[in-house]
Amino acid sequence: MKKSFVRIISIILVLCMTLPIMASASVAGEVSRVSVTINGDSATSRGFCWYTDETAGTDVQVAVAGADLTKAEIVSGVSHKAMDKYVHKAVVDTLKPNTKYQYRVGDSKTGVWSDVGYFTTPSKSKDDANFIVYADVQASNEENFQAAAKVLQVAVDTMPNYEFAIGLGDFVNDCTNEEWDSYFRNFSFMNMNTTIVPVAGNHEGNLQWFKFNNMFNIGAVEDSATITGCYYSFDWGDAHFAVLNTNDMYPMSASQINWLKNDMNASDAQWKIVLMHRALYSAGKNINKPDTVIMRNLLLPVIDELGIDVVFAGHDHMYMRTEPVKGEKVQTAQTVTEIWNGESTTFAVNPDGTTHILPSTAGTKRYGVNEEAMPPILESSAIARDTKDGGVFATVSLDSNHFVYKAYMVNDETGEKTLIDTYAIKKTDREPANDDYVDLPTDIGSTAGQHGITFVVEILKMLVSYIKLLFSVI
Ligand SMILES: [Fe+2]
C-alpha cells in the first residue's frame, strides 16, 4: 500500500514537471506560415498572417530595426479555424515611410512568438523601386518546393537590395496542408523578410475555394467578392501596381473591371503595372482555352485604354515577352543606349503600347511553346521559349524615367544562373491623373446587369475568335 502510494505520488510529480514543458513544446512549434503583405498604404501599413495548430492569441509586435522588439506595442488581430488549424490575421497601420522594421507574431499571453522577421516601407518622396518577380511554384512535394526555393535564393543573391517580391499565383498544386506547410517552410527566408505581393492563382482560388485569403492578409477592395482570391493595388516609388484576380471570371466581373479603370485613372504614377495570374499574351498550352480567350477579348481593350506599361502574368509555365503591343499590333519604338546604374543599357524610348511578360515558372513543372497559339500571340513576341533546364526569376529596377527588367534561369543541375532576357524602357513624358474621370460603380449589385450583358457579348466574341483560329490553321 505504501509502495503504491509512493508510486502514484511519483507519477503525479513527474507529470506535473513534464506536462508544461510538453504543452509549451507543442505550442511553440505551431507558429507557422508567416507572411507580411501589402494591406492598405504600402508606406504606412502591413498585413500579417500566420497559423497555429491549436487556438492561440493573435498578437504582433513591430519595431524599427535595431530597437528592443520585446518592448514594442502589442497589436492584436483576429483568428478563425481553417484547414483544421487556426489562421491569424493582424494589421499594423501606424508605420513610418522609408523605414526598415523588425517584427514577430504570436501570443503575448503564453509568450510563444515566431522568429523575428523584417520588412521595409517605401519613401513617399523617392521615385525608385527594386523588386523580384516569380511565377507558379505549383509544387506538390518537398523536393520540388526546395528546388523552387533555391531559384528564389539565387534571386535574393542577385538583387540583395530588393524591397518586395511578387508571386504571380499558383503557389501550390493541390492546396493541401502538407503543400502549404512545405511552401511556407521553404520560402520563409523570403516571406518573413520582405513584403510579399501575392497574386491569386487558380490552384489556390478556383479549384480549392477560400484558400488564397486564408493564407495572406491583404486588404481586399471594398465591395469586392473574395471567395476566389482578391484584387488590390498599391504604390511603390513612382509606380502604381494593380493586382487582378483572374479567378473572378466568366468573363471577369464588371466590378473588377470598373475598379481597375477607377484605380488606374486616379493614379498619377509614371509607371502603371498590372499583375495577374492568367496571361493575356502567352504561348503556353492554356492560351487557346475559352476562359483565357474570353478574358483576352474583354481585358485587352481596357489595358490599351488605361495606358498600362507592363503586364506580368503566370499560369502557362513557359517564358514569353512581347514587343510593346496596342490594339493587338506591335508598336515599334526608338531605342537609346545609356549608362544607367553603372551598366550600359538599351532602352525603348516612350513605347506606345504594353509589354506583356510571362516569366515562366520558378518551379519544376514546365511547358513548351505552343506553336498553335491564337494569332497574333506568336507574331507579337520578342522572345518565346521553354525553360526546361531550370526555374526562372526576374528582377526590376525603376525610377521615374527608367524601367529595367532582367530574367534569369537557374540551372537544375549546377545551380548556375543565366541571363535569358533583358528589356528596358525610358520614359521622358508623364501623363497626369485623369481629373475629369467619373468613377464607375464597383459594387456587385450595381454591376450585375453590366456583367450579364458582358457575359453574353464575350461568349459571342469568343466564338468569333475560335472561327478565326479555325481559318488560320486550315
Ligand atoms: Fe495556373
Description:
The chain is α+β, with helices and mostly antiparallel strands. The chain has two domains: 28-120, Purple acid phosphatase-like, N-terminal (Immunoglobulin-like, Sandwich), CATH 2.60.40.380; 129-426, 4-Layer Sandwich (Purple Acid Phosphatase, chain A, domain 2). 27% of the residues lie in helices and 30% in strands. The chain contains nine helices and 26 strands. It has helices at residues 2-28, 142-158, 177-186, 188-191, 211-215, 254-265, 290-306, 377-380, 444-473; strands spanning 32-38, 46-52, 59-64, 74-76, 78-82, 85-92, 100-107, 112-113, 117-120, 129-134, 164-167, 195-198, 232-236, 239-243, 271-275, 310-312, 319-322, 325-326, 329-330, 335-340, 343-349, 355-359, 381-385, 390-398, 402-411, 417-426. The strands form five sheets. The chain has an eight-stranded mixed sheet, covered by helices on one side. Strands 13-14-15-16-22-17-23 form a seven-stranded mixed sheet. β13 and β14 form a beta hairpin. α2 runs parallel beside α3 (177-186) and α7 packs across α9 (444-473). The longest helix has 30 residues, at 444-473. The chain is globular, with a radius of gyration of 24 Å. Mean pLDDT is 91; it is low at 11-29.
